[in-house]
């Protein structure tokens, strides 16, 4: 990739910034402000992203939430996959949803409220408040995965074998120094079902 970022139109995130370290540090410095209900809020942030994908396809989307024995959580959807473009050299550039602020929500807490009654802020909150996060992306033309630690990418885009489907899986470990155990699934299911009828 060249030294200059492609001049793409910004809708949800700034394509010119792959990582906003100051933004991530701000989130980590105020975890209760950006995730007031702890792990529940982090899961709801990811589910809101999945609901966006379902809405973009004009249909009911499928989404699954899985709790793992190590305390991590994975959320998978069958949307389009995170927007990925190509620079002048033909190298893939993914929308920096994990490491930069969501231009729609982060500075506008009145824009959308999540099912826990608190403002939506964006996926960077999930990444910043997790010890690690793995973002797996399946697009119609290419699939890849990338790992983050406290919101900072620690790998490049690692290609994956095509599976003939599209969608996104966000697998993350909420920082145990900041959060206790994850919420009970039935309570989460009730809140999400009421807030996002476009997903199942």
TrEMBL record:
Keyword field: ATP-binding, DNA-binding, Isomerase, Nucleotide-binding, Topoisomerase
SUPFAM superfamilies recorded: ATPase domain of HSP90 chaperone/DNA topoisomerase II/histidine kinase (SSF55874)
Catalysed reactions, as listed in the record: ATP-dependent breakage, passage and rejoining of double-stranded DNA
InterPro entries to which the protein is assigned, alphabetical: HATPase_C_sf
MF-aspect GO terms: ATP binding; DNA binding; DNA topoisomerase type II (double strand cut, ATP-hydrolyzing) activity
Main EC class the enzyme belongs to: isomerase
Entry EC number(s): 5.6.2.2
Domain of life: Bacteria
Annotated family: Belongs to the type II topoisomerase GyrB family.
Name of the protein described by the UniProt record: DNA topoisomerase (ATP-hydrolyzing)
Organism: Kineosporia babensis
Classification of source organism: Bacteria, Bacillati, Actinomycetota, Actinomycetes, Kineosporiales
């Amino acid at each position: 990739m060249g030294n200059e970022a492609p001049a793409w139109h910004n809708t949800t995130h700034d394509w010119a910034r792959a990582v906003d370290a100051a933004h991530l540090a701000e989130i980590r410095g105020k975890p209760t402000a950006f995730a007031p209900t702890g792990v529940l809020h982090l899961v709801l942030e990811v589910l809101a992203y999945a609901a966006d994908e379902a809405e973009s396809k004009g249909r009911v989307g499928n989404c699954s939430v899985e709790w793992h024995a190590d305390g991590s959580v994975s959320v998978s959807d069958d949307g389009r996959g995170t927007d990925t473009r190509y620079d002048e050299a033909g190298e893939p550039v993914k929308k920096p949803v994990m490491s930069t602020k969501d231009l729609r929500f982060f500075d506008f807490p009145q824009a959308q409220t999540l099912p826990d009654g608190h403002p939506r802020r964006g996926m960077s909150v999930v990444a910043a408040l997790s010890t690690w996060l793995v973002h797996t992306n399946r697009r119609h033309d290419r699939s890849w995965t990338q790992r983050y630690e406290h919101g900072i990418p620690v790998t490049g885009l690692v290609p994956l074998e095509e599976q003939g489907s599209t969608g996104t899986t966000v697998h993350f470990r909420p920082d145990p120094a900041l959060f206790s155990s994850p919420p009970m699934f039935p309570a989460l299911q009730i809140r999400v079902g009421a807030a996002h009828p476009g997903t199942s």
